[in-house]
TrEMBL record:
<dbReference type="Pfam" id="PF13302">
    <property type="entry name" value="Acetyltransf_3"/>
</dbReference>
<protein>
    <submittedName>
        <fullName>Succinyl-CoA transferase</fullName>
    </submittedName>
</protein>
<dbReference type="InterPro" id="IPR000182">
    <property type="entry name" value="GNAT_dom"/>
</dbReference>
<dbReference type="GO" id="GO:0005737">
    <property type="term" value="C:cytoplasm"/>
</dbReference>
<dbReference type="InterPro" id="IPR051908">
    <property type="entry name" value="Ribosomal_N-acetyltransferase"/>
</dbReference>
<dbReference type="InterPro" id="IPR016181">
    <property type="entry name" value="Acyl_CoA_acyltransferase"/>
</dbReference>
<dbReference type="GO" id="GO:0008999">
    <property type="term" value="F:protein-N-terminal-alanine acetyltransferase activity"/>
</dbReference>
<keyword id="KW-0808">Transferase</keyword>
<dbReference type="GO" id="GO:1990189">
    <property type="term" value="F:protein N-terminal-serine acetyltransferase activity"/>
</dbReference>
<feature type="domain" description="N-acetyltransferase">
    <location>
        <begin position="18"/>
        <end position="185"/>
    </location>
</feature>
Length: 213
């Protein structure tokens, strides 16, 4: 079985409404279709890398290529774990957890997107809560970091709800213009104090060496 060689395919996170899992090829096909249908208002670009600028076919293909690239580049010292988010049997978006030198730094980052049809329903909070539980409970993280552009109130609101505090700014060039990003940081105590979403982790034990644990 594929999980004998790549146990991440057996990793599942369960919240009251969602399942997060590492996608197989059929899941990736659905994810690409969600991306192609639209992730954000075309008039705004919420990502540092403007991967959603393009035709529907180009966005779908780049979604697949990015996921495959993350699989191929994985090492215990530098990994990026991308789940698909599933609600009522349908894939609605993706949630990532990544780290560099995790065994030493004990710090993770997060990133996510949802199809536009699924915005405004609290899914963003629930799916990030799931990977934070994986990080702090499952992997023994000490810190989690995130960043959102200054005008991305939805992402910033999720971070504040989950206990993050401000951690400075970063400046980027997006579509040829300077954009300010707000950095945020969450420590273990802040996560525990703000924790309200129940999360069940399945299939983690055989994956731990891949995370450097």
């Amino acid at each position: 079985m594929i999980t004998d060689h790549w146990p991440l395919f057996g990793l599942r996170l369960h919240t009251p409404r969602l399942e997060l899992r590492v996608p197989d090829l059929a899941d990736l096909a659905q994810l690409a279709e969600v991306a192609a249908a639209g992730v954000h208002d075309p008039g705004r670009q919420p990502f540092v890398v403007p991967w959603t600028d393009g035709t529907a076919e180009e966005v779908a293909r780049s979604t697949l290529q990015f996921q495959w690239r993350m699989w191929g580049q994985w090492t215990p010292g530098n990994w990026s774990l991308h789940f698909v988010t599933v609600h009522d049997g349908r894939i609605i978006g993706t949630q990532a957890l990544d780290a560099r030198e995790f065994a030493t730094l004990r710090e993770v980052g997060t990133g996510s997107w949802l199809g536009r049809a699924h915005h405004g329903r609290g899914f963003g909070t629930e799916m990030r809560a799931a990977v934070l539980d994986l990080a702090f409970t499952g992997l023994g993280a000490q810190w989690a970091v995130s960043e959102a552009f200054a005008d991305n109130a939805a992402s910033y609101g999720v971070s504040r709800k989950l206990g993050y505090t401000d951690d400075g700014i970063a400046r980027h060039v997006v579509r040829g213009e300077a954009v300010v990003g707000r950095r945020l940081r969450l420590d273990r105590a802040g996560w525990a104090a703000a924790r309200t979403v129940g999360v069940r982790i399945e299939g983690l034990a055989p994956c731990l060496p891949l995370f450097g644990c």
